[in-house]
Structure formats: C-alpha cells, structure tokens
Specification:
globular; five-stranded antiparallel β-sheet; mainly beta; single chain; ten-stranded antiparallel β-sheet
Length: 240
C-alpha cells in the first residue's frame, strides 16, 4: 500500500503516494493520540479504532486524469483518499473545472465517534503560490471560495458511508452549485463572488474521505444532472 503524503513546499502537493489497495484501517484523524491500525477491531465490516473512531475498510481510489492538488499542512493524501485531523484543512483538485458543467462525489470513509467530524464541499480559486493561509481556511472564509457543510453544524449529519454529490454549473452567470446527500438534494445558499477559474475543493476536519473525481468511482450517478460530466483535464494536462 502507498504511504500517506503531507504538504511540502508552501502547502502544495508533492506526491500522492502509490495508489492501490491498502486493505487496512487508518488511524482516526480526530484523535490527538492516534490509534495504530493494529489496535482496531472489526465489527460488521467496519473498523472501530481504539480512539472510538468508526472507519470503513478498503483500499483508496486510484487517481485518473484528475487527482488531488494543493492542500493544507494538516491534510494527508494517498491516491484519492484524504484525511485531516480536527484542526482542519483544505484540498483542491489537480485541475480546474474547464467545461461548462461538472459533477463529482465525496465518499465518507472515517468519522469521529463524538460527532465532531465535518466537511465542506464546493469550489475554490487556486491562489498564486498555493497560498498556505487560504489552504488552512474553511471554504467561504476566503475570496472566491464556496462550500456546503456537512457534519457538526452542517446541513445534514455526517455518517460512515455517506455519499456527497456536487454539481458545478458555469454555463451561465452567476454560476451555481447543487449538492446531494445520499441522493437527496440539499438546500444551500447561492454562491457569491465566484469568478475566473475554479477548482473542485474540500475542507475537512476530523474525517477521512475518498474523492471520486472520475465517473468510474461514482456511487450515486443518478444524482448527476443531465448535461453534467466528470471533471475533464485541461489541455495543458492532455498535451497540445
């Protein structure tokens, strides 16, 4: 299995580790004293860490054309699996949304037993230099960013196995974002101030997720509206 990689070089991703099947349970990201995987017990297909964290077993998703790009200092990456301690941090995809309409999903793999886990899903600008300060902030706390929160204080509770769907529409102005929770469309404030290139973005605290940026990883494809597709690589990634 691949090793977790943190930030280096001003909060930008240097590597994502070797994608593949880890088969083991990661330690609870919400615990101050992290529990070793060997200390976890398995109950009904779920691992219960020594710290009381609930987690789903299984390997991380393999990145396709789009992976995980810049991320905060406390955010750890392995393939398309992302985890962050209670302090929280932001992660951006490795490419902006270049098409008119895009859809992606977030799969919840680990949550804290004390219900303190939370995640914001949405979009953000990739500020010059990776902007380490912005990468520590919640979506919506910096200019040209927007997120809908789940978990503690959010629009819906956050549970192990939840599937969050995000549809970003920039075909007309102002842009719009729709978010689903296990197939149910959520009510959320309209985004403001989003202009220019925008990247799929997450802010997570005390949880671990798989970021299903490619259609092959979607679990709730019925939520994807007609005319929307997975995030496409820019011409710079494809090659001119």
């Amino acid at each position: 299995s691949g090793s977790w990689t943190g930030s280096s070089g001003g909060g930008r991703a240097v590597a994502t580790g070797r994608a593949g099947s880890s088969g083991g349970a990661a330690a609870c990201p919400n615990a101050s004293a992290v529990a070793a995987p060997a200390a976890a017990s398995v109950q009904g297909g779920k691992a219960i860490g020594a710290s009381g964290c609930s987690m789903l077993l299984g390997g991380e998703l393999r990145p396709g054309a789009i992976g995980v790009g810049p991320h905060g200092d406390d955010v750890e990456i392995r393939g398309l699996r992302i985890r962050c301690a209670a302090a929280g941090g932001r992660a951006l995809a490795s490419a902006p949304v270049v098409q008119d309409r895009a859809y992606w999903e977030v799969h919840i793999k680990e949550v804290a037993a004390d219900l303190s886990s939370r995640i914001l899903v949405g979009v953000a600008a990739n500020l010059p230099g990776g902007s380490g300060e912005a990468l520590q902030q919640e979506l919506g706390a910096s200019a040209r960013s927007y997120g809908v929160q789940f978990g503690a204080g959010g629009v819906a509770p956050l549970k192990l196995g939840d599937v969050l769907g995000v549809a970003y529409d920039q075909a007309v102005f102002p842009v719009s974002i729709s978010v689903w929770h296990n197939g149910a469309l959520m009510s959320a404030p309209a985004p403001r101030g989003l202009k220019g290139e925008m990247w799929p973005a997450l802010f997570l605290a005390g949880c671990t997720v798989d970021w299903a940026l490619g259609e092959e990883h979607w679990k709730s494809s019925k939520s994807c509206p007609e005319g929307f597709a997975a995030v496409m690589p820019s011409r710079g990634l494809i090659g001119d």
